[in-house]
Queue: 3 jobs
Job 1
Amino acid sequence: METIEQKQKKESARIAQALESGDFYFIGIGDGGVGCCCPHCGAEGRWVYEWCWQGKRHAAMAGCYKVLTRSIPVTDERKFWEQLSTKMAKGKELSGWDKNIMNLDSMRDQYGDEWVDKKIQETLEKRRVWAANKRW
Ligand SMILES: [Zn+2]
């Protein structure tokens, strides 16, 4: 298992990488607590979204996040990380799929981004099929 320090170091490296490439990278959702303000517009709220895009780090609440990221393609992977961060920020239980993908995401050092991204795509696809069948 990774230590928290290792995880934080890896996360910083990924943020730095995203800032350098200019790619979209979803960092996560933080709990600002009741009465927190949107770092973008100052509106009152609680959950602060953080992401990287076009070489800059951004933070805003859900409404502003949606507007500010409108031009960025919504992939299954992006949706997954947004949903997962919401669950984690709100202390909701994670599913087996969530844990699988988090586990894959932690293996980038050993197996490389290409392999990990492919496996995550495959897992998301399996989850999509599973969810479609579950709906009868
Ligand atoms: Zn705002």
Note: Residues 1-72 form one domain.
Job 2
Amino acid sequence: MVIVVFWTLLGACVGSFLNVCIYRMPREGLSVSRPRRSFCPSCGAAISLRDNIPILSWILLGAKCRSCRCPISGRYVLVEILTAGLFGAIASRVAFDPAGPNFGELVVLSALSASLIVASFIDLELRTLPDAITVRGMIIAPFVLVFVPSILPDAQTRAVRQALSGAASAAPLASPAVAWAAAVLASGPLFLAGLYGYSRYYRAAHRGQTTPLRNGILGGVLTAGAGGALILGVLVPPYCAQEAYIAFVSSLLGMLVGASLVFLVGAIGSLISRKTAMGFGDVKLQGLLGAFTGWSGTIGSFFLACFLGSIVGIWILLRHRTHYVPFGPFLAAAALLILLLPEPFLQFLNWYMSLFR
Ligand SMILES: [Zn+2]
């Protein structure tokens, strides 16, 4: 209980920092760490420490800036409450886990939900999802899940374990030294393939601009790492029995399935409606989410997001007469729902499927 209260209060403070990220990340010339002090977006006055207490300050100041009396957007307090609520929900799930509390899970799920809040609010405001969250997240996620494999659904890791041991028994048994040599040899061409693939994608997406070298190298390293890991696991069967190894492969698989699913549905939608149905930012976001929910969870969370998005979309269409609904926040909310409440989600899915029987 103490953990839950502490983590909820921490969430409110983190939410206050997330507001800074939401405002500064997409804006040129501003970084999350510079300037150090928060400032009022309308008059630029630095905000003192006593006016920077999460939630409370907003209420005490009557939602107005102390120096210029301009209204402070309700978004600030909404983000703080949302972050506090999510952190509290994650802490209570982890603290009351029958298998015992897993603090790695607590930290990773909290960091994920904080990143998703930032990405969602930037998407709502500016209709863009920052690569600093989606692409970087996709690169980090498989390595993070090696340390907290319990986040991935059991059914998924079991299926990956079976498929890997099947592949390993079909492949010739190699000594670890030979397998490492093969993996290292293959990583060179894989690195170049990743670098080439990423720069091709970047040029297509950004109309001829040169690729930032750092991102290209990251793409190459990820491809080489994933390919090398697969070669090692298949050639040396004891490796692929390791829980960490299975988590790594499951996470990559979830990423691939999530990103491809949104890409395919978006491409079909664009063909039918003759305009962009889903942005490439959504593809990358669902890739990141798939790394945590696994391939089975990512399909479920995508359909849940469509379901939630269509309900809200119809409501917005009726009220505001606009067709545009950013999809990122729905993808993020659906994935978090599945990660935090897997059982009610399965019940909902069964109920939904029973409607068609
Ligand atoms: Zn002001």
Note: The radius of gyration is 22 Å.
Job 3
Amino acid sequence: MSDQVQAKEVLTPKQMDPDEARKLAKACVCSDCWGELTVLFDWRSRMSTVSCETRGCPQHGYVSRKYVERAEAKSSGELVEARTALQANGVLPRSGKSESQLLKEMGF
Ligand SMILES: [Zn+2]
């Protein structure tokens, strides 16, 4: 997934004001696994960092939820196009199923 993310869309993790961190965690998800973000507060520096909730995730940064929605809509559209093209060329048998049924079967 992260290969599709363009560098300019990714925000790099850094220490920030706790309010700013809460806003970021609400508006963004992890750029690597698209998982939810959690805010960590450092009592010593009085600053917060935003961290991915997925264990073992490298978490290189954050992307906005809107970005993820756009990317998902794009890839599901491409999947239907690819399948339709393969059926038209006789590579895949025609199933007689609608696009929405096919998307459901593929997990969308
Ligand atoms: Zn992650």
Note: The CA atoms of residues 54 and 94 lie 39 Å apart.
